[in-house]
Each structure stands twice: as C-alpha cells, then as structure tokens.
Design a protein that fits this description.
Strand content: 35-45%
GO molecular function: hydrolase activity
InterPro entries: AL/BT2_dom (IPR010496)
Number of helices: 1
Protein name: DUF1080 domain-containing protein
Structural class: mainly beta
Number of strands: 17
Helix content: under 10%
Radius of gyration: 18 Å
Organism: Mucilaginibacter ginsenosidivorax
Shape: globular
Distance between the termini: 28 Å
Order of helices and strands: HEEEEEEEEEEEEEEEEE
Length: about 270
Amino acid sequence: MKNTRYFFIFSCLLLLGCTGAKKLADAGNDGKGWNKLFNGTDIKDWFVKINHHLVGENYGNTFRVEDGIIKIRYDQYGEFDNQFGHLYYKTPFSHFKLRFEYRFVGKQQKGAPDYTLLNSGVMFHSQDPRTMLKDQDWPISIEMQLLGGLGDGKPRPTGNMCSPGTDVVYKGRIWPDHCISSTSKTYDGDQWVKGELIVLGNKLVTHIINGDTVLQYSKPSIGGGVANGYDPKYKQDGKLLSSGFVALQSEGQPVDFRNIEIKQLPDTDD
C-alpha cells in the first residue's frame, strides 16, 4: 500500500512537471527571447577542452568554423588516442530551451572506439571546463546523445540520454544504466536533424527531435561512473544539478552543427 501511494505521488509530480514543461515549450515557440550561441563566424565565445590537453588548446583544429557551420574534424590527428573533446559556451544556464541542427559527415577517425561511429552529443549542466584536469575524458554532465543510422535497416534512435559522472530519475527511480534510448526515428545519411532541449533546472528535462518529444526524465544529479580523471572535489555524488555549461561533443566522428540558439526560461514550480 505504501509503495502504491508513493508511486501515485511521484506520478502526480511528474505529470505536473510535464505540464509545466509543455507550457514553457509552447512559450518558447513565439519567436521571442531567442539568442544565438553561435554567431556563424567564429567560436570566440566558446571554450575548448580535449582529453590529454589543457583547456583552451584546440588540438588539431578540431573545432573550426566554415560556411557558417561549426565543423568537428580530425584530419590533423594521427591515431585518435581517446582525445575526446568538447566545445563549451562561455556562460552556464539553468532553465532554458536550446535548439540546434546537426548532421554526420565523413568517416570515423582511425583508432576511435567502435561505439563512436556516427555518434556525437550536446552536453548540458556540465562542470566548468576550467575545473577539468588535463587527462579527464568526459565532463561531469548530462548528454543529449546524437546518433546516426547505420544504413542497415535497424532502428538507431537519436536524442538519447547518457550520464557521464551523473544520474537521472527515469520511470520512478534512479536509472541504473549509463544511457536511456529515446523513441525517435532513425536518421540515415548526412541529412540535417533538428534537436531541442527543455531543461528546467534540477526538475524536468525534455528531449525533442524534429518536433517530436522523444524522452523525458527528471532530477539530474552528480553520481554514477563513466567519467574518469576528474578532480574528486567536483564529484559530489547526490548533489542535484540545477545549472551548468552547454557543450558540443567530439569523440571521433566528423559532425556539423549550426543554428544554435537558446531561450532562457523562468524559474518556476508550475
């Protein structure tokens, strides 16, 4: 009986959170209040942090701007050597709606892990890149994982959730797996795909792909594994994540990003 009551309470809270998220999502569609994170010309408003390198070192010109697009490339690398990287916008955000477009291009870099094939992501609620150690592979953050179809007719959803050094609540409990698959369609080839995030501080998170809501979860917090090489003082397990940095990921697959915009939302319990 007690378990049933707790489940009912959680379901009501989740429903209220989803209703609030829908209201905020609808408000975000009025065309007002949007700001460009990427100016289409350069990445002077962004920080680079690549594994095995100090913050600010854009090794191999990994992150570059051409034709109004942020391009992630590895043509100046040798072996990949786990040089996972991220490009961080200069200021943190808490309650916001983020929208962007991405596409996968080219071939996976030699030596990159198999799982990085047609794989990238947008990190949010991330630790400040200036707090990362030289040999830290992933930032403590939440990831909206982006995947491309393999052209084999098998489903490979995009807009998933992965949790380097973090936890989320999904289906009423702290989810034990590192990633949660979304309900999105599979997108093959080099087509542009539109991704959106609605992030309500440490409450509800909603993933949207090409206009379809594909995943929701709540209560992002520090915890879990996967991230390595971090300074222990920044890994405070159980601490709710209410804000952090937004970053674009490089992990061995060439990928393009464009039209990156954000709308800050009010901090509300509705």
